[in-house]
Fold this protein.
Amino acid sequence: MKHVLETVYGHIYKCVNSLPKDFTVSDIACQSGWLGTHCLTQGFKFVNFIDARPESFKQPPSNFKNWDFVQMDISQYDLFRNQINDFDVLLYCGHLYHSEDPYQMLKTISETKCKHLIIESKTLDMNGIHLMAPPKIDYEIEPTHLSGLAYHPTKSELLIGRPNLNWTTKTLQELGFKIESYATGVLDNVSYSQPNKAFPHYFIHAVR
Ligand SMILES: C[S@@+](CC[C@H](N)C(=O)[O-])C[C@H]1O[C@@H](n2cnc3c(N)ncnc32)[C@H](O)[C@@H]1O
């Protein structure tokens, strides 16, 4: 089993670090802003942080002035598109599985001028928990576990998706992106409510 820190997050850092530093970045649904702050330390030109809840945001060190924070609901798609339209790099981590309309979210992102899109997400199964074999088994993520959409049981009538790697890569390609790289990994024992569950995560670097 490959841990998410070795794979998904390792790839995110590697990918971000390899991008030209004269790019501007928007860290969408940033929470604490750890990834955008990493971009500031890497020397990117400007970093925009977005989240609906400013209380979890940690301001970057005071020597950085080239950033701002915008509080907004990113499911207000027209406002969101305007906000992110001009950034070269969009970081969209830890939110796709929260999105009530993953397709509209990716479509909105595709309608901007972004050159690089970095997505991290996790996949939930039909029980809304995890898509994998029973926990405590030493498994790899098999491609067969990554096909199709999983739906939240209580909200399935609304077709609220928890998009997996296959769906997300296919949708991004349909929306005009090229998949530059991707990675998968498992994050386990992190949930207080489901302590023995493992959560399959994935990372995608899409370009155009
Ligand atoms: C799991 S955290 C991800 C944080 C960070 N990007 C990461 O990868 O570690 C999800 C974040 O999405 C934000 N969020 C959820 N729904 C949102 C919305 N409709 N508009 C803006 N932010 C939202 C939450 O406030 C939270 O900070």
